[in-house]
Specification:
The chain is of the alpha/beta class. The protein folds into three domains: 80 residues, Arc Repressor Mutant, subunit A (Orthogonal Bundle); 105 residues, Periplasmic binding protein-like II (D-Maltodextrin-Binding Protein, domain 2, 3-Layer(aba) Sandwich); 116 residues, D-Maltodextrin-Binding Protein, domain 2 (3-Layer(aba) Sandwich). The strands form four sheets. Strands 4-3-5-15-6 form a five-stranded mixed sheet. A hairpin with a 4-residue loop joins strand 1 and strand 2. The protein starts with a helix and ends in a 13-residue tail after the last helix.
């Protein structure tokens, strides 16, 4: 039977990516780590990983063993926490993967509060817009904004996502305000690499827009910057441009339409019987922060003070979009033709 220390060393080598890196974290020499791994493989009667001087790779047996070892170690951690009455306090290191823009805007500003509540916890926040291997890369959880498909991971929805078409008033004054979905074809569209089709839902059902324009990028921040600079029309989430809609810097185009409502903000974590306190507490913290109605959908954020540019602090985004729509103020311009600037 393998002892717990051998399992911990094996798991640390996998997450660190090499025996040298694992040895530095554990205070052991690479030779000692290698010897302990060989002892574990001899005991199991199978090779768990292929070794080179610079990296390691798991065999098929090693991958299955690693997934089960992670679950075992998590269960032991939770059991120790229960016995020591630590379940209400997060400890150790919490490794999180999150999308770059969302984390910068809606996770980082609130970390101070969470860390003050959990002073014995270290947070390793890794920002990436690429999907990561949560189990293989040693993450405790990942924040994903997507329409989730079937997965072996456990998911908890933190908030709904609303995506709307938007542009600056200056762009719309110069090029005209679209009155129908078909009018979008006459406009400059700013798209993400993954957005070759905009699927929109309105009172008349679902429609598809094939956006065209001079810019296609894999960067959310580039699209955000360009739409704010008046380059064209973009499909953006309200968590990203809610403040600009409230201030009037951006105007919602076709406010009766929004993208698929199946997309949400989710916390994903490996399926296991015992959820570590550090993971549970962080997920609960975000859920309380974002739901039932995310603060970016209201006029005044829960943290950060008042919005000095808001004309009416009692309004939410729905009221603002309707009050500024052409139908409500009688100032509609030509539907798709390009008019001179006012």
């Amino acid at each position: 039977m393998s002892n717990i220390a051998d399992l911990e060393i094996f798991a640390r080598v996998v997450t660190a990516g090499s025996m040298s890196a694992a040895g530095r974290e554990l205070g052991l020499s690479p030779a000692v780590v290698s010897k302990l791994l060989r002892r574990l493989e001899d005991r199991l009667g199978t090779r768990l990983m292929q070794r080179t001087t610079r990296q390691i790779s798991l065999t098929e047996a090693g991958q299955g063993f690693y997934e089960r070892v992670v679950a075992i170690l998590a269960g032991i951690e939770e059991a120790e926490a229960f016995v020591a009455r630590r379940s209400a306090l997060a400890r150790g290191t919490l490794k999180i993967s999150a999308p770059t823009s969302f984390a910068r805007m809606h996770i980082a500003p609130h970390l101070s509060s969470f860390m003050q509540q959990n002073p014995d916890l270290t947070i390793n926040l890794v920002l990436s817009d690429e999907l990561v291997d949560i189990v293989g890369d040693g993450y405790d959880l990942a924040i994903r904004i997507a329409e989730l498909s079937d997965s072996s991971l456990v998911a908890r929805k933190l908030a709904s996502v609303r995506r709307v078409l938007c542009a600056t008033p200056g762009y719309l004054n110069q090029h005209g305000r679209p009155q129908t979905v078909q009018d979008i074809e006459n406009h400059t569209c700013l798209t993400m690499t993954s957005q070759d089709v905009w699927r929109m839902e309105g009172s008349d059902g679902s429609v598809m827009i094939r956006p065209t324009g001079p810019l296609v990028t894999n960067s959310n921040d580039v699209v955000r910057t360009c739409v704010l600079n008046g380059v064209g029309i973009a499909l953006r989430s309200t968590w990203d441009i809610g403040a600009e809609i409230k201030s009037g810097a951006l105007e919602v185009v076709l406010p009766n339409y929004s993208a698929s409502k199946e997309v949400g903000i989710h916390a994903l974590y490996p399926s296991r019987r015992f959820l570590p306190a550090k993971v549970r507490l962080f997920i609960d913290f975000l859920a309380a922060l974002y739901t039932p109605v995310p603060y970016w959908e209201t006029q005044t954020p829960r943290e950060g003070g008042e919005n000095p540019t808001a004309s009416n602090p009692s309004q939410n985004l729905d009221e603002i979009m309707l009050s500024r729509s052409p139908a409500s103020n009688g100032s509609a311009q030509s539907n798709g033709t390009r008019e001179p600037a006012e």
